[in-house]
Every structure is written in structure tokens, then in C-alpha cells.
Amino acid sequence: MDEGHDAPTIALAQPHERHKPWPALLTGVTTFALILLISVGGFLFAPSDATAPQPPANVDSLPYVDGVLVVVELPDLVLDAYDPINGEQELSFKVREADSQYFDVVHLRAHSSIGLPTRLFYEEEGGQRWAVYKEDAPANSTTSK
Q1: Is residue 89 part of a domain?
Q2: Is 52 helix (H, G, I), strand (E, B) or coil?
Q3: Does residue 51 surpass a pLDDT of 80?
Q4: Do 80 and 89 contact (CB within 8 A), yes or no?
Q5: Fewer CB atoms < 10 Å away: N or C end of the chain?
Q6: Is the separation of the CB atoms in 126 and 95 below 8 Å?
Q7: Is 132 a member of any domain?
Q8: Residues 36-49 pLDDT 10s
Q9: Of 76, 70, 64, which Cα lies nearest the Cα of 141?
């Protein structure tokens, strides 16, 4: 049965090409976009090495009010207070140049845009409220001092 060199050649079946649901270019672009998105997200949400400014020494003796900021245009701040002060629900504050280091506008606008509670420590002189320091208010806060 062995016919040697005279045997008919047997043709090998060609391998089937695999079906690729995504072209290689699209897969590469998608991978790059995903890596870029993860990198940017890691950069934006990673803890900062910058140290926050220390609050003023007298902050514990200052009155404060909790509420949601509705205007953040330094030197002007407007707070929708949880508890009205002297019958006023919407309280206007000014920020002195010396105290502006305690007010991160980007952070305050983020609070304002999603309604996060903010606590403002302030002084009052001649009918004008001066915001001296701010901190994130407790989520269940409904008080003023």
C-alpha cells in the first residue's frame, strides 16, 4: 500500500480565519482610552500632598452657621442656612483678603453644586458678616452657634 514517491499528495485543509469582532485598531484605541481614563482618575482623586491651612487660633470662639452655599464669588458668599439667624434664611458674607487662604473656591463651588453642607465661622461688625473660616459641616447638621 505504500506507494512511496508516486503516492498522490494529500492537500492539507487551510486553517479557518478566526472571526474578530473588533478590528485591531479599534481594540488599540479602546485600550489606550481606558488606560488614559484610569490614569486621569487616579491623578484627580489621589490624596494631595499639600497641607491644608491651619484654622485661625480663635476659631473655636467664633459663631458659626451650617447650610448650603448658593453663591460662591469671592469675596462674596451666600449661605442658605439650616437655621435662620435673626429671621434671615439666606445669609450674605464677605471674605477679607487676610482670610481668603481658608476658602478654596473650587472646593466651595463643588459643595454648592451638589448641595453639600458647609459650616461658616464668622465675625459680625457693623451689620456686616465676615466669613473667617469654613469647614465641611456634618451631614446631619441643622444647627448654628
Answers
A1: yes
A2: coil
A3: no
A4: yes
A5: N
A6: no
A7: yes
A8: 888 777 766 665 55
A9: 64
**Separation CA 143–CA 82 (nearest Å):** 7
Residues 11-36 pLDDT 10s: 666 666 566 666 767 777 888 888 88
Instruction: Tell me which residue has cell 482670610.
Output: 99
Q: What is the number of residues in the chain?
A: 145
Total of domains in the chain: 1
68-99 CB burial, b ≥16 within 10 A, e <16: bbeebeeeebbbebbeebeeeeebebebeeeb
* Mean pLDDT within 129-139: 88
How far apart are alpha carbons 108 and 70 in whole angstroms? 10
What does 83-98 look like in DSSP terms, one character per residue?
EEETTEEEEEEEE-GG
Report the CATH number at residue 130.
Answer: 2.40.50.140
